[in-house]
Structures are given as structure tokens and as C-alpha cells.
Specification:
By secondary structure, this protein is mainly alpha-helical. It is built from eleven helices and four strands, in the order ααααααααααββαββ. α6 (about 125-150) packs antiparallel against α7 (about 155-185) and α9 packs antiparallel against α10 (about 250-285). It starts with a helix and ends in a 15-residue tail after the last strand.
Length: about 375
């Protein structure tokens, strides 16, 4: 197998691993509440998602070692294409036609955009550039998180903002990874430790934010946003700070802008499809059963069943006798039970017949002689 074919194969497997991790994350997010929606550490399924994402990242790095960046990076956009049929197959979450169109538009636009980015020589960032990149990234991520918290009543918009923040964190993590990789060609130094720490913080932040982005927003919209924002941020930094260029001059620049518009249109379709679904759910009237609102489907079914439950005409239930039981007078003697201590209970039906409770004395009043 040639190096190019191996690179393509690894890219496909990497995209499948990323898609599987996203599906598991979305399933975990459905049952996570509060702070656990960011880091459900006690959920084994979440750690499985972390392992799948780690496997996808490792395979992506190995694919870059065997194939050109212009080929491997666009193939990474196939994650969303694999995720939709895998979600329908394994967890029964089917996507509508609008979601499919949006996912395909986002994938095609991203692939075209990355294919037009030209490669450059090995360059690194100096100290002030790294500090500026870290500060700007932290400010952007914090601003997106604050905005997501402000629109918490709209799960789709909140999800897109958190997925965008995750994409920014992952993209800048790739930028610092490239910087450290270039530095290590001349030998490992202690000056790279801050960059390694930034890579760890950004990768962890991106993982936690991507987990939270799946809460109440489905799979397609946050995954497509993350898949597009991540390489776009990395490509933008590569053009502005690493000297990378757009191929084919002005024509390539126009094509890149067109691809960006197509990718953005796909994200808009995914977002509006989710918003329309939320509006449709809110427009459904809340059923009222037995004089109260029922919010859950199982509760509604149970209430309707109880409301329609009728006794057959050929069955006659015994009437409840509400007269109290006559308790005989207490016998004389020191060991006699106080009649007041005997509970007075009415007759009641018990399996079709009368139920007569037996008198029971208070154990504190009973005396035992040996």
C-alpha cells in the first residue's frame, strides 16, 4: 500500500472514530444535568467518548505524517457525514432532510476551503506571538461561554455558541501543536513547557465544551459547527501568522470565500432546523388529564388509562361500612388492656369480603409475668 493510500485510509478511520465519539457524547449529554453536563467523570460512556476522540486525533496525526495537509485536512470534514447515518443505525436518531442538506453543505464548503489553503515552510511563533494568541483565544472562549449562558433558554443557539468555543479551543490547540513540533526539530527545550501546558488546557477545554454543546441540541448542529470552526480557525491563524497563502491568487481567494459562504449556509440550515423543531415542540398543547397538566408522555398515558378505567356492569363492589367496631369492655385485673389503646377501625372491603381487624394492645401497657 502506498503512503498516499495509507493516509487516505487513516483519515477515513479517524473520521469514523470522531463520529463515534460525538454520538456517545450526545447520548451522555441527554442524561447529564448541572455541572455534570461539562464533565460527567463518573460515566464510563463519557470516558469511552474521550478514548474515541483520542484515537481519532492520533490517527489524524499519523495520516498527516504519510500524506499532504491539503488532502488529509479536507477528509477530516467527513466526520459529520459519517455521524448522521451512524446515529440513525446505532441509537435510532434519524436526521431530517434539512439536517442532511446542511451537513453536506458544511462538509463541501469546508473541504473546498481547506483544499485552497497553500502550504508554507516550517515556521514557529515567537514568545510575544504565543502570549498574544493564548490571551486572544482565552478571551474569545470566555466571551462565547458567557453568550451561551445568556441564551440558555434557546438550546439550539446555546449549543452553537458552545460548539464554536470548542472549535476555537481545538483549532488553537492545533496551532500550538504545530509550533511545538517545529521547535522540536531543533531539539527539545524547557522553553516549550508553557506551550505544552497551553495545548493541554485548550484540548481539555475543547473536550468539555463539546460535551456541553450536545445538551438539548441533538447531534448534527453542534458537530457540524465544531467540524467547521476547528480547521477554519487553524487555517486563519496559519495564513495570518505562519505565512500560508491561498492558492491560485485572486481566483483562489474568491473560491475560498465562496466555500466559506457554503459552509456558513450549511450551519445556518442546521441551526434553523433545530430551532424549528423546538418551536414545533413548544406549539403542541399540553394535555390536561384529571384536572391537571401532564408534561410527560408516560404520565399522560397512565392518566388517560386511569381516567377511562370502568368497573364492569356484572361486578358489584361491596360498600364500605363506616361504622366503628364495637370493642368489648375490658376485663378487670392488672393485666387488662386499656380499651382506649385499641385502635378503632371501620369495616372495609378486602379481596371482595369484609375485613375485621383484630384488637391489638399497646406493647408499652402489657405486663409479662414469668
Amino acid at each position: 500500500m502506498s503512503a498516499l493510500a495509507l493516509s487516505v485510509l487513516l483519515s477515513f478511520v479517524s473520521a469514523v472514530a470522531y463520529a463515534g465519539g460525538a454520538i456517545v457524547q450526545e447520548q451522555v449529554a441527554l442524561s447529564s444535568t448541572g455541572a455534570r453536563q461539562y464533565a460527567p467523570l463518573r460515566r464510563p460512556a463519557w470516558w469511552a467518548a474521550v478514548a474515541l476522540n483520542g484515537l481519532g486525533a492520533l490517527l489524524h496525526v499519523v495520516a498527516l505524517a504519510y500524506g499532504p495537509l491539503s488532502l488529509v485536512q479536507p477528509l477530516g470534514a467527513l466526520t459529520i457525514v459519517f455521524a448522521l447515518p451512524m446515529a440513525a443505525l446505532f441509537v435510532g436518531r434519524k436526521a431530517g432532510g434539512t439536517a442532511w442538506r446542511g451537513a453536506l453543505m458544511a462538509t463541501v464548503g469546508l473541504a473546498g476551503l481547506l483544499a485552497l489553503v497553500g502550504a508554507s515552510g516550517a515556521r514557529s511563533l515567537d514568545g510575544p506571538q504565543r502570549v498574544a494568541a493564548a490571551v486572544v483565544t482565552a478571551a474569545a472562549v470566555m466571551a462565547l461561554m458567557v453568550a451561551a449562558r445568556a441564551v440558555h433558554r434557546h438550546p439550539a443557539v446555546r449549543s452553537i455558541l458552545l460548539a464554536t468555543a470548542a472549535g476555537v479551543a481545538f483549532g488553537m490547540s492545533s496551532v500550538f501543536t504545530k509550533t511545538v513540533a517545529v521547535d522540536w526539530t531543533g531539539g527539545v527545550s524547557a522553553g516549550d513547557l508553557p506551550s505544552l501546558a497551553v495545548i493541554g488546557v485548550l484540548a481539555t477545554t475543547g473536550m468539555l465544551l463539546s460535551q456541553a454543546s450536545y445538551k438539548g441540541a441533538g447531534l448534527a448542529a453542534p458537530l457540524a459547527t465544531l467540524t467547521v470552526v476547528n480547521p477554519v480557525v487553524a487555517a486563519a491563524v496559519g495564513i495570518t501568522m505562519f505565512g500560508e497563502t491561498i492558492r491560485y491568487g485572486a481566483t483562489g481567494t474568491a473560491l475560498a470565500l465562496s466555500c466559506g459562504v457554503v459552509a456558513a449556509g450549511g450551519l445556518i440550515l442546521l441551526t434553523t432546523e433545530r430551532l424549528a423543531r423546538e418551536e414545533a415542540v413548544r406549539a403542541v398543547p399540553v394535555p390536561v388529564v384529571a384536572g391537571r397538566e401532564v408534561r410527560d408522555a408516560e404520565d399522560a398515558a397512565a392518566e388517560l388509562l386511569l381516567a377511562e378505567l370502568k368497573v364492569p356492569e356484572d361486578v358489584t363492589l361491596p360498600e364500605v361500612v363506616t361504622s366503628p367496631v364495637t370493642v368489648p369492655a375490658a376485663a378487670a385485673g392488672p393485666d387488662a388492656v386499656d380499651p382506649a389503646a385499641v385502635p378503632v377501625m371501620p369495616y372495609a372491603s378486602f379481596y371482595g369480603g369484609p375485613y375485621v381487624p383484630l384488637p391489638a394492645g399497646d406493647r408499652h401497657l402489657a405486663r409479662v409475668r414469668s
